[in-house]
Design brief:
The chain has 358 residues and is mainly alpha-helical. The protein contains twelve helices and no strands. The protein is globular and about 95 Å long.
């Protein structure tokens, strides 16, 4: 379908560069969650990071589609890039549901099988969560295939005539609707946040390296897949290898409390990736240059999602802590009343016994 590359590099080296960028960035996410705890770490860890090298790869793969030199932006190239970015949005909704599974499945499994070790519980939760994601991804791929059948993009090398071609309006509508669902899911998940303590142990260097390698492979594979199908490439770019490796790494080093506390912030904060994708898709046809498009999209996602998400989750955590404090004081008051009643009862019994003896 397409075969563009980063200027000065072959397509293969473009894939390698994009993958390495993603691997380095993703390795830092685990350290951030570990250092700052579930809320701050989860929000920072879900900011648009790995989607940037993925967008870089998609941009140079598609933007010159059909042009004589393979680099001059065309309407077909803009539309293909938009397809890859838009398809990542429903993919992020799947990731939100995937993260939700990581929050509730451990509690359910632990209640039914309390004798499971930490590693056994981790294996069960991972297997169940990834199967849920794959089942939903299959359904999404079928839906995207039906949508793609109705969107015909002529590859004729025509110059860019509009930022959003009429053929892409339905796709954009679906993207924004999916973003709304993702935000709602994140708000609900963060309404009653579980404890999100800071880690007391460091993630082993070997785990960090494996995490970076996994992320690099995921983004590299997404760009290669995108060469065949922009829809599939966009979905593959948000495969939850990054979320999974973050949760597993923190789980192994610090237990499920830290990883569970990061899930709500990750769910809500990850909507910033969807905002980034949609804004980049809209602006790519405006002849601003890739760097400016990415900068505007990143700022819009941080200001529109990351900052409000942090404020919202901090407010909910303060409210939850306040309610817990009130409940604790009430329990203490009841305990004192019970002790006083017990003491009065004993005093009454003692007085009665004395009167009987007299």
């Amino acid at each position: 379908m397409a075969g563009g590359s980063i200027p000065g590099l072959t397509f293969e080296w473009s894939v390698v560069v994009s993958g390495l960028m993603a691997g380095v960035v993703c390795t830092l996410v685990t350290v951030v969650i570990e250092k700052f705890g579930g809320v701050v770490g989860g929000i920072l860890g879900s900011m648009p990071t790995t989607i940037i090298p993925a967008a870089l790869g998609f941009y140079y793969t598609f933007i010159g589609l059909g042009s004589a030199d393979g680099t001059t932006p065309t309407q077909a190239g803009v539309s293909e890039f938009q397809r890859s970015m838009i398809s990542s949005v429903p993919g992020m909704l799947l990731n939100a549901l995937y993260l939700l599974a990581w929050r509730y499945i451990p509690t359910y499994v632990r209640a039914r099988y309390p004798s499971l070790s930490l590693l056994q519980l981790l294996a069960v939760v991972f297997t169940a969560a990834i199967l849920i994601w794959l089942a939903l991804a299959v359904a999404l791929v079928v839906a995207l295939r039906e949508l793609a059948a109705n969107i015909i993009i002529p590859v004729d090398g025509a110059p860019v005539s509009s930022a959003i071609s009429p053929a892409m309006t339905t796709a954009f509508a679906i993207g924004f609707a999916t973003l709304g669902l993702q935000i709602v899911a994140g708000v609900v998940a963060g309404w009653t946040p579980p404890p999100a303590p800071k880690s007391t142990a460091k993630v082993p260097p070997g785990v960090l390296v494996l995490r970076g390698v996994a992320a690099a492979l995921a983004i590299g594979a997404a760009i290669v897949i995108g060469k065949t199908s922009s829809w599939a490439g966009g979905l593959a770019s948000v495969f939850p290898v990054i979320f999974t490796s973050s949760i597993v790494a923190v789980w192994l080093s610090s237990g499920e409390a830290v990883s569970s506390g990061a899930i709500g912030p990750l769910m809500l904060g990850s909507a910033s990736v969807s905002v980034f994708s949609l804004v980049a898709a809209i602006l790519v046809g405006a002849d601003l240059g890739f760097g400016i498009v990415i900068a505007i999209a990143w700022v819009a996602s941080v200001v529109g999602i990351t900052v409000p998400s942090f404020l919202y989750l901090r407010w909910r955590r303060e409210v939850t802590a306040s309610h817990a404090l009130v409940a604790t004081k009430e329990e203490e008051a009841f305990a004192v009343e019970d002790e006083d009643a017990f003491a009065l009862n004993r005093a009454g019994e003692s007085s009665s016994s004395t009167m009987v003896r007299e």
